[in-house]
Write a structure and sequence with these properties.
With about 170 residues, the chain is α/β, with parallel strands linked by helices. A three-stranded antiparallel sheet has the order 3-4-5, with no helix packed on it. The chain has a three-stranded parallel sheet with strand order 6-7-8, covered by helices on one side. A two-stranded antiparallel ribbon has the order 1-2. Helix 1 links the parallel strand 6 and strand 7. The chain starts with about 40 loop residues before the first strand and ends with a helix.
Length: about 170
């Protein structure tokens, strides 16, 4: 993992039972981008301080990449992307979470060795371990939005549309 020490500070206020999204701009010189062949990951730490005291800390790994759609083509890091993917269903009847993670880990390594660059998780959102492993292996993830197959009349129902957008937004933000 790449360990560049960069620091950025954002001051904000937050009231009880509310949330906010904060964007942080960090500049790095000659960044190593995440790709399917070289899944470079940076370590990041976010600390929340209140009156100078640490109240929360979150450490995670992230890959620097760009995804864009231009002229009906998907561009990944500026190059045309050809998806080579597989649908994957996580079976949960094999035992405890450790056993499941071990089985998924073996499966994902085989999927990567087969030449795939994308794993579509069917039937729900995988846990953080699985998503992190995909990042480390150089596999892009696609997660089914659990909005079902409603009758076409639902697509004019504002409540249904709002709830569906919330589900998709939560998947994208995680």
């Amino acid at each position: 993992f790449i360990k560049d020490t960069l620091k950025s500070e954002v001051k904000f206020s937050l009231t009880t039972n509310h949330s906010i999204n904060i964007g942080i701009d960090v500049t790095t010189i000659s960044p190593k981008v995440w790709s399917f062949e070289s899944p470079n990951l940076y370590e990041a730490t976010v600390k929340i301080l209140y009156n100078g005291s640490l109240v929360d800390v979150r450490e995670f790994k992230l890959g620097l990449k760009t995804i864009a759609v231009k002229k009906n083509e998907v561009l990944f890091n500026g190059k045309k992307l050809l998806f080579k993917g597989i649908g994957y269903v996580i079976e949960t009847d094999k035992g405890g979470q450790t056993i499941i993670n071990d089985l998924i880990s073996k499966d994902l390594k085989i999927i990567k060795q087969s030449g795939a660059n994308l794993v579509k998780f069917i039937g729900g959102t995988p846990n953080e371990f699985v998503l992190d492993l995909c990042d480390e292996l150089g596999l892009m993830t696609l997660i089914d939005a659990q909005i079902g197959m409603p009758p076409s009349s639902q697509f004019r129902n504002e409540v249904y549309i709002s709830r569906s957008l919330d589900v998709v937004s939560n998947i994208v933000m995680t």
